């Protein structure tokens, strides 16, 4: 069932386009991955995305979060410096890297326009290189109010779109779509879920010797 709700994260950079900076879309993906992986998680935090309430609420048990290491940046310069340190700290024991709101600080007034784009591209490139070099998932997020990933980085990133629906969060990627929504006490399926499960029924032609009256008579037998 989990496979129908959340996408798995492959090694390399995944760009999650989140419904908003306060969405739990990121936390759900991280917790899901940590139930399947052992090791340290380096979380490069911006705008207090690493809320312990959301993580503990979603984790099946608190031990899942034992390996999470959070470093918070409050300026673009701090963010870039921490990304550089992170690249040196990642090793074979690393399970994944998380970089929420990765573009946000580079829009602040304390970063001159002539420097912001280059600094942001350098940071995003560094995160992508970490994923490739160490073969670990790197999950970076932006939302509609943020700048997108730099084109050179975005070209090689897997994109996961997330949106709010009346049933819950819907994730969609080139190779994935949420087809089941799980809530307290029940789960809601979608038409694509059943298509994946059973396939599409073939259309059949009505035999030439069967008329409308014959069909009506047959239906009457169900009454």
- What is the CA-based Rg, rounded? 23 Å
Proportion of residues in helical segments: 25-40%
- Report the CATH architecture: 3-Layer(aba) Sandwich
Instruction: Tell me the total number of β-strands.
Output: 10
Main β-sheet, spatial strand arrangement: 3-2-4-5-1-6-7-8
What is the end-to-end distance?
Answer: 37 Å
CATH superfamily: P-loop containing nucleotide triphosphate hydrolases
Poorly predicted runs are: 190-198, 210-223
The structural domain count equals 1
Q: Return the CATH topology.
A: Rossmann fold
CATH class identity: Alpha Beta
Largest sheet: 8 strands, mixed
State the shape: globular
Strand content: 15-25%
What is the succession of H and E elements?
A: HEHEHEHEHEHEEEEEHH
Report the total helices.
8
Derived from helix and strand composition plus strand pairing, the structural class reads: alpha/beta
Question: SSE layout and pairings?
Answer:
Elements: H1 2-5, E1 12-17, H2 25-34, E2 40-45, H3 52-58, E3 68-72, H4 76-89, E4 94-99, H5 113-134, E5 137-142, H6 151-154, E6 158-164, E7 169-173, E8 176-177, E9 180-183, E10 186-189, H7 191-198, H8 212-220
Parallel strand pairs: 1-5, 1-6, 2-3, 2-4, 4-5
Antiparallel strand pairs: 6-7, 7-8, 9-10
Helix pairs in contact: 4-5
Question: How does this structure look, described?
Answer:
There is one protein chain. The protein has about 220 residues and is α/β, with parallel strands linked by helices. The chain has helices spanning about 1-5, 25-35, 50-60, 75-90, 115-135, 150-155, 190-200, 210-220, and strands at about 10-15, 40-45, 70, 95-100, 135-140, 160-165, 170-175, 175, 180-185, 185-190. It has one domain (about 1-200): 3-Layer(aba) Sandwich (Rossmann fold). Helices cover about 35% and strands about 25% of the residues. Strands 3-2-4-5-1-6-7-8 form an eight-stranded mixed sheet, with helices on both faces. Helix 4 (about 75-90) packs parallel to helix 5. The longest helix is centred in the middle third of the chain and has 22 residues, at about 115-135.
């Amino acid at each position: 069932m989990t496979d129908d709700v959340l996408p798995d994260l492959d090694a390399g950079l995944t760009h999650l386009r989140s419904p908003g900076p306060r969405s739990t879309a990121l936390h759900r993906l991280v917790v899901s991955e940590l139930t399947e992986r052992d090791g340290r998680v380096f979380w490069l935090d911006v705008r207090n995305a690493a809320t312990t309430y959301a993580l503990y609420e979603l984790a099946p048990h608190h031990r899942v979060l034992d390996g999470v290491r959070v470093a918070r940046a409050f300026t673009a310069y701090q963010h870039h410096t921490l990304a550089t340190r992170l690249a040196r700290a990642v090793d074979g024991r690393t399970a994944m890297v998380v970089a929420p709101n990765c573009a946000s600080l580079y829009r602040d007034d304390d970063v001159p326009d002539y420097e912001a784009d280059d600094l942001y591209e350098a940071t995003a490139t560094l995160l992508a290189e970490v994923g490739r070099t160490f073969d670990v998932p790197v999950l970076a997020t932006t939302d509609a109010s943020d700048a997108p990933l730099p084109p050179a980085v975005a070209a090689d990133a897997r994109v996961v779109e997330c949106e709010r629906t009346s049933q819950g969060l819907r994730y969609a990627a080139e190779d994935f779509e949420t087809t089941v929504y799980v809530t307290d006490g029940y789960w809601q399926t979608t038409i694509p879920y059943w298509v994946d499960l059973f396939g599409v029924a073939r259309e059949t032609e009505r035999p030439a010797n069967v008329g409308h009256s014959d069909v009506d008579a047959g239906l009457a037998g169900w009454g």
